[in-house]
């Protein structure tokens, strides 16, 4: 009978505490892991996080989810026990009443039968203690594992400032106190009253250990120590192992039958959590458990007895050997080390295998040799912004990061119409309308450096420089500020980059040598010097206007040269024509002068002959252009032609020349004469 079992009789007493504690732990755990996941999503989206959630709080939330899985599953099982106990009590009461009562009414009999039928349906309640409780453990175990994974990938640099870290550490240490009270309360609860108490006590050790470990680690990190991060990582690893164990136990129930309800307990249990205690593991309890479940008596095994006796000497020997191995150091081809004997540097050792005193008597401080680094010069970000400066990378790593045929990375974008993470803005002095002002220029400058190859440089680098990248950035930033304060924007943009890089490298090397840093600056690469991206459009318009003005000036100069050439050509042609005409006139005048002199000489010698020749010459010229009739007086006869040269009236003003026959002519005293009465020859006519 269930009423004879103590844990069934006390089930109703533990239902409310188990469910309430489980709900509270689940809400807090889901809140912390959800906030951490939101911060992680914002960081992956390259956004500034609105919430600063350290990974320690995410680990703490995952541990609370593990404890909530145990409490909720135990609460479900306890609720089932309480209901089964109530049903068993009703059934027993009904049966006893029917047997003991000699005479009952019909109504009482009907009530008893109804109670008995209701009790017969209660075995279905047993199934609630099986799969629902198991699925709850599986779900919360998966959520805890997801929270640990997210917290593990969350960057350590995302942590808040030191004051907030100390406050959160104090909250975690204070939260460990109620968890300790719960753990001690369930540790003092008998498994006869609550069979799930030992399992809950073991699961409560997980958030208790997480709060203590994470609180201590956050306190030490806020004080500036770096090694406590390994405490945080170890705590997260422990929580992840417990979550994985819960998931495996839940999945195993798909292949293992559930125990009877009298012996059924929650699936939420962890062997890893059972190891979280100050005492050594109880091997006798482990042996008894193995003997009970598998029938193997480990106390009678000689092999285990031998291992128990040989464990301490073996561990001591292995520890001594491991300590001795710390005195052997192998350095690669790109490595060297400064050997410290009893805290005093005695030598600089190069690549190869070296034997020295074990740690901490002999310590090797590694120093690079020949490794070239490339860093961008950018001032450190403020406390409320994400760092935009990228760590230095080796040149061979940069060459191997992008293939020859692969698309170019985003860092290869050198167009200055958009901002780049490696650019830094500087103020440059200028003058506008006779007044002093300033302008802004963005500079993308990279420094290629390495550790000096000498032993002295290795010693300086090992003991004088804690963070070479930050030191180089700070020194280069000071030099750039001083440089841009002496020049204007036009001087900066117009100066030769090669000259600027050489001068800047010399000044930077001088500053580094002044503090004995041991760093050798190989080159200074000027990627870009340009106005800010916001002024890109205006600057492009200015450049376009300047290019247009220069092109128009060139076109006008070409037109002027063309017009001048045409004018010169026309002037030369007119001059040549004038010179030719003058030469012709001079030649003609000279020829006339020669002819005149010759004519005068001919007239002087023979005047009559000269005049006769001239008369004939002019007569030949005149006759060549005129019509004339030759009349010879020796022409006679009756039929000789007659030319009438008389003029008539105005109707024939132009005069007509008619040829008359010999019979109509006016015969004169002489047949060979022509008579033209009242008429005279026309002007210009020749006889």
Question: Topology of this structure?
Answer:
Layout: H1 6-9, H2 11-44, H3 55-100, H4 106-120, H5 131-153, H6 162-187, H7 197-222, H8 229-252, H9 271-274, H10 283-294, H11 302-325, E1 328-331, E2 335-341, E3 344-349, E4 352-355, E5 362-368, E6 373-376, E7 393-394, H12 395-401, E8 424-432, E9 435-451, H13 455-464, H14 468-484, H15 489-494, H16 497-514, E10 519-530, H17 536-605, H18 607-623
Antiparallel strand pairs: 1-4, 2-3, 2-5, 6-7, 6-9, 8-9, 9-10
Descriptive labels:
disordered C terminus; five-stranded antiparallel β-sheet; three-stranded antiparallel β-sheet; 687 residues; 10 strands
The helix/strand class is alpha+beta
Return residue spans where pLDDT drops below 50 for at least 5 consecutive residues.
Answer: 380-400, 651-687
- What global shape is seen? elongated
Assembly status: single chain
Strand count, sense and barrel status of the largest sheet are: 5 strands, antiparallel
- What proportion of the residues is helical, as a percent range? 55-70%
């Amino acid at each position: 009978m269930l009423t004879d079992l103590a844990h069934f009789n006390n089930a109703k007493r533990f239902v409310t505490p188990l469910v309430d504690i489980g709900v509270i732990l689940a809400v807090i755990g889901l809140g912390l892991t959800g906030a951490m996941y939101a911060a992680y999503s914002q960081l992956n989206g390259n956004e500034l996080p609105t919430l600063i959630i350290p990974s320690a709080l995410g680990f703490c939330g995952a541990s609370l989810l593990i404890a909530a899985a145990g409490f909720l599953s135990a609460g479900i099982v306890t609720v089932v026990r309480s209901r089964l106990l109530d049903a068993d009590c009703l059934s027993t009461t009904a049966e006893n009443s029917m047997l003991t009562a000699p005479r009952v009414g019909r109504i009482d009999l009907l009530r008893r039968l109804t109670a008995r039928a209701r009790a017969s349906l209660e075995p279905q309640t047993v199934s609630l203690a099986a799969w629902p409780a198991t699925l709850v453990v599986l779900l919360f175990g998966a959520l805890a594992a997801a929270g640990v994974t997210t917290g593990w990938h969350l960057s350590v640099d995302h942590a808040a400032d030191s004051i907030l870290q100390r406050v959160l550490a104090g909250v975690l240490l204070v939260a460990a106190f109620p968890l300790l009270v719960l753990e001690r309360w369930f540790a003092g609860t008998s498994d006869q009253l609550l069979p799930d108490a030992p399992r809950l006590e073991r699961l409560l050790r997980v958030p208790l250990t997480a709060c203590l470990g994470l609180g201590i680690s956050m306190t030490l990190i806020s004080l500036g120590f770096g090694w406590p991060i390994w405490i945080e990582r170890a705590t997260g690893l422990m929580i992840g192992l417990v979550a994985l164990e819960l998931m495996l136990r839940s999945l195993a129930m798909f292949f293992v039958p559930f125990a009877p309800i009298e012996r059924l307990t929650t699936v939420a249990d962890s062997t890893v959590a059972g190891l979280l205690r100050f005492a050594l593991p109880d091997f006798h309890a482990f042996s008894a458990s193995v003997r009970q479940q598998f029938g193997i008596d480990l106390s009678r095994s000689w092999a285990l007895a031998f291992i128990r006796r040989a464990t301490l000497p073996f561990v001591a020997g292995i520890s001594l050997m491991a300590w001795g191995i710390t005195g052997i150091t192998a350095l690669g081809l790109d490595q060297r080390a400064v050997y410290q004997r009893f805290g005093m540097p005695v030598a600089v050792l190069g690549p190869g295998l070296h034997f020295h005193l074990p740690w901490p008597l002999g310590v090797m401080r590694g120093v690079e040799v020949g490794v070239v680094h490339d860093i961008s010069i950018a001032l450190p970000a403020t406390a409320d912004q994400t760092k935009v400066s990228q760590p230095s990378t080796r040149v061979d790593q940069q060459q191997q990061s992008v293939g020859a045929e692969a698309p170019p990375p985003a860092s290869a974008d050198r167009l200055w119409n958009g901002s780049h993470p490696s650019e830094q803005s500087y103020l440059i002095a200028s003058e506008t309308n006779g007044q002093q002002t300033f302008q802004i220029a963005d500079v993308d400058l990279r420094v290629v450096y390495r550790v000096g190859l000498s032993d002295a440089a290795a010693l300086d680098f090992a003991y004088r420089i804690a963070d070479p990248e930050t030191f180089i950035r700070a020194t280069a930033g000071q030099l750039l500020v001083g440089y841009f304060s002496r020049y204007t924007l036009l001087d900066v943009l117009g100066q030769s980059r090669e000259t600027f890089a050489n001068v800047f490298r010399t000044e930077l090397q001088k500053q580094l040598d002044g503090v004995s840093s041991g760093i050798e600056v190989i080159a200074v690469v000027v990627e870009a010097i340009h106005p800010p991206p916001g002024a890109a459009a205006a600057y492009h318009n200015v450049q376009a206007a300047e290019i247009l003005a220069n092109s128009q000036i060139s076109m006008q100069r070409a037109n002027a040269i063309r017009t001048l050439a045409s004018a010169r050509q026309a002037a030369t042609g007119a001059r040549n024509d004038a010179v030719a005409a003058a030469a012709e006139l001079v030649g003609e005048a000279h020829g006339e002068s020669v002819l005149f002199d010759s004519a005068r000489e001919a007239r002087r010698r023979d005047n009559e002959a000269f005049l006769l020749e001239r008369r004939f010459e002019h007569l030949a010229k005149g006759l060549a252009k005129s019509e004339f009739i030759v009349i010879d007086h020796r022409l006679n006869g009756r039929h000789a032609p007659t030319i009438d040269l008389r003029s008539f009236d105005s109707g024939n003003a132009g005069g007509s020349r008619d040829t008359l026959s010999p019979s109509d002519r006016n015969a004169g005293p002489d047949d060979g004469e022509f008579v033209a009465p009242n008429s005279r020859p026309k002007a210009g006519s020749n006889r």
